[in-house]
Amino acid sequence: SETTGYRWAQYNIAYLQGDLANMDEAGEVLDRRNPNDSVIRLFVGIGAWHRKRRSDLDERIQAAQETGHVDPLIGQRAGNVAHLALAARLMDRPADAVLAGEMARSILATQKLTPVDETSARIAAGLAAVAANSAPDAKEHYQRLKHLRGTGIGWLIPICADRLLGLLAHTGGMPEEAAHFDAALAFTGRAGYRLEAAWTHHDYSESL
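Above: the chain's sequence. Below: its structure in token form.
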């Protein structure tokens, strides 16, 4: 049978492409197979929110907040926090952004983080800074994440690296924002990631 990893990859690609039919199909399977995985449940909820079809999103956000505080696995905590920050940005929930930022800073204060966990937590903290409109934090996270420029999408959450850097640069009042948004639009266009391209256009227009 198909593994959860396969369905997770299918869901991520469908989300980026805006392929709502495949997203619904994979999301239903992921929900059914992983009722206790707060990262999966929150991301499926975010996807359904785009279609205005999820009535329990607040419950999923609360579960991710709780797990993000107590899960003994740093990677799982970082996953919860990153998706919480993504939800806060997409849905304009500044209070949730502040909480996600606090949780991300707690992870970043942990000794001996792996490079992957550190970058994941930094991405979450950066998105939280954008959602909370914190220029000092955005500048700091931009400097720590600028090495991701041109890397496309390959980290914890489905967001183009240059789109994230564009958001951070804009929030921090930095001149690099246009170059990052242009790079993100070029990448998402080549990849056929229509939903990510639409959000990039949205963010770019807000920065003008």
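The radius of gyration is 16 Å.
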